[in-house]
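The freezer alarm interrupted the setup, so I double-checked each line after restarting. Inputs confirmed:
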Amino acid sequence: NAGVTQTPKFRILKIGQSMTLQCTQDMNHNYMYWYRQDPGMGLKLIYYSVGAGITDKGEVPNGYNVSRSTTEDFPLRLELAAPSQTSVYFCASSSTLQGNQPQHFGDGTRLSIL
Amino acid sequence: DAKTTQPPSMDCAEGRAANLPCNHSTISGNEYVYWYRQIHSQGPQYIIHGLKNNETNEMASLIITEDRKSSTLILPHATLRDTAVYYCIVRNNNDMRFGAGTRLTVKP
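Predicted 3D structure, all chains:
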């Protein structure tokens, strides 16, 4: 019953450091997404992927990179961490890109950049 | 920007029905109405979705007006564990824009 699993749950970074947020799903979904959620706000789409080897930008892609080498995994990389990237990051997956199937979310990674 | 408008907060008595409204006056014909909730700081939890017809599942009911410009999420017997932020989202393909949602507080 794992669904979408994100690691780590919490992380503190120094300005300029880099890190990779991991996301894996066991539902054999082709479509995967990364969102960020700032305090008191809704989620904003960073990047999404429609299958292995295919990714595309969302609403707020600057400062992030993604890759999709397998169906299961969709890591998000921060190359030069900045305080503005302090946020909660959620990964999601769905069986279709169309609107008739829900996206399923992980429990998030809470990232602080100091 | 989110395509929906929701009240920022609502209260509900435990055991009573919670009716959460949402306006989506610019919805297109192929866009679905989705409801998610977020309890504390957990990941968004899918509740229900619909296109034109009213929908019901084990968690809630979704009532969509005939012109599709608004909808209501109904939690039939709210419990304290239903206290959460509820998001109404109009979705087409990957575009799922979350607004600020409605903070529902269920009180004893």
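Quick read of the result. DSSP finds no helices and ten strands in chain B.
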